Amino acid sequence: MNIHEKYINRCIELAKNGLGTTYPNPMVGSVIVLNDTIIGEGWHRKAGEPHAEVIAIRSVKDKSLLKDATIYVSLEPCSHFGKTPPCAHLIVENKIKNVVIGTIDINSKVSGRGVEYLKRNGCNVIVGVLEKECEQLNKRFFIFHNKKRPFIILKWAETSDGFIDKLRDKSSENIPNWISNIYSQQFAHKMRSEEQAILVGTKTALNDNPSLNCRNWFGENPIRLVLDRTLKIPSNYNLLDGSVKTIVLTEKENVKKQHENVLFEIIDFTDNIPRQICGVLYKHEIQSVIIEGGTQTLRSFIDEKLWDEAFIFVGNILFKNGLKSPEIKNAPTEIQKIFDDTLKIYRN
Hints:
Layout: H1 3-15, E1 29-34, E2 37-43, H2 52-58, E3 70-75, H3 87-93, E4 98-103, H4 113-120, E5 124-127, H5 131-137, H6 139-147, E6 151-158, E7 163-165, H7 182-194, E8 197-200, H8 202-208, E9 223-227, E10 246-250, E11 262-266, H9 273-283, E12 288-293, H10 295-303, E13 309-314, E14 323-324, E15 334-338, E16 341-347
Parallel strand pairs: 3-4, 4-5, 6-12, 6-13, 8-9, 8-12, 9-10, 10-11
Antiparallel strand pairs: 1-2, 1-3, 7-14, 13-16, 15-16
Helix pairs in contact: 3-4
């Protein structure tokens, strides 16, 4: 690892502190180095708050050192006025002549313009250090801007004998049939805190009456989405309580809203539902979503090959009969043990 990779790697480490809090902005880290010593660093915490470069520059006590220093940043500094002033302008104003960038910002408002501004104002700019790692850091942001859809994560728990749920009838309670252990459940809530939205189908909503929040982990609750073609879900169910922004995907028009926080979007249930869901999510500028069930909804995304990662928690429990879990034919890229559960991670 050369010196530039060393400090871009530090930028990536810093940027990860913003996972789940920077939407719709990307995660960015920045360090300022003089004589192979870090004299300032920072990361972007939340949209509307100062960017990584701003925090890094502010953290340098003796500003006279900046003219001889190098600023490292995991993503191209912005050059446009948004909720905050342009970072490229701040770098130039502080007479920082050496700039090392991990990767170009894919956002059309920035893409290449920050580098161009820096070069035009006399900065020595190096681009593409640990480029793949910097793109992977912001995989959600890059997928959203490149493919015009959110980053899609499939997630479910299944028994050791391959069932996702017990068979249900009218006498069944509207509560989950837990398969994974409490540690896997906490891991799943951590996942929710890191993604922008979460989606379930009608049967899951009716069978489990889920809240889809991250009550077992610290962080922002994701935006909730639910498929409800004919509005079967009772108004007193958790998903419709207005406690979290919720989008109901339905075919019903002119629906009377019960809560300001519950929105309705019309889709055509006879057409490609996963593609339409992606369209709704893109419209609402949602960069990532966890598809958490049920089986039919998960299979529809698998059949369309419309997913990026999948997390399957295999519990140490047998149902012997029930609803078969979806199937992903590729081999898992990673397998972890969570006490007596097995977590299989797939990347598409």
